[in-house]
Write a structure and sequence with these properties.
The protein has 393 residues and is mostly helical. It contains 17 helices and 8 strands. Strands 1-2-3 form a 3-stranded antiparallel β-sheet, covered by helices on one side. A 3-stranded antiparallel β-sheet has the order 4-5-8. It has a two-stranded antiparallel ribbon with strand order 6-7.
Amino acid sequence: MSSFRARGGRLIFDFNYRGIRCRETTKLTDSDSNKKLAAEILSRIEAEILLGTFEYAKYFPKSKKLIKFQGKDNTPVTDDITYGDFYKLWFAENSGPWRPATIASFEGMMGKYILPAFGDKPINQITKSELLLFRNELINTVGRGNKKIGSNHINKIMMKCKVVLVEASSRFGFSDPSKGIKPLKKKRTEISPLTLAEVKLFLNTIRADFKVYFTVRFFTGLRPTEINALIWDDIDLSKQSLWVRRALVAGEIISTKTDGSYRMVQLSSLVLEALKQHKAKSKFTKPADTVFSKPDGSYLSNDYVGKYIWHPVLRLLSLPPRAMYQTRHTAASIWLASGESLEWIARQLGHTSTEMLFRTYSRFVPNLTRTDGALVNKYLDDAGINDIYKKEK
């Protein structure tokens, strides 16, 4: 009789195959959900043993017992292991420590794109040509807003497809068909910050309950996930600063993704005054309450704010349509135009170096500051260097 039990925090399968008692330690941790999954896997193993279709390598590719059940050439048979079957096993082994948003992203792309294309195909028979044709289909696939999905999104889909193939090829000893397939060239991010005049017009037009929200976005450069997760305990009005410690992703507040994202942001007098007024009027001011929320106190989402606030106001003001992420670019542009140091701006934005500032915003600085080297000329004038050639005339 087959069974499973827990030992050392892991689930162990115990079953008989070809007259041999087999005990295999899985990567499944001892939890209720994994016990349910283990029961399903073990039931499937029993059925396959009964039907004579069970393949040891399919479930336990790294087992020491595998050699007892291999063919004459001493290699595991993989023709009956489909991409979908192996993905289920791989996912169960690896998804334990993942964040909910990562799991949702992986399963979403697998279910929508990858499994319909390769799920029923033997994993060792997938070819490089098929992968390239699959990518070409993605290039012509229409996504949100009746627009073709972008190269960045396609690269993410291909990466998720590839990681399963790489592991399978390593376990079963076949050539990785995804090897040598390079990512598509990423489309350059469109930087279209609002001017100060447009920001003022926007803030004077927007409905009152979102005026402070966008004031903070325009003048702190917080990412959408960061401002939506901001709680009152993160703000120190006396020190004119706030801490970015968490992010709101897929409806769940989690810690920031990188050490660079975890940071202190200095607040301008404008933002400070806006937050003071907002706190005085807000119903939700406990330390753990989010600073900005829907009227019922529930979390804001970028989709909600974009659909009901951002895009309608842009249309009302006849401003060019643009992603709401441009509020972050607007903040960076304002700081650059005001002459703040690049190191300070990088820290405010959560960048680990000034390299991204140069790469992303350099072409906007001359137009915004209207200096184009004038500061250098003034510096040389003040030092009397320019007089060298004046005297020679």
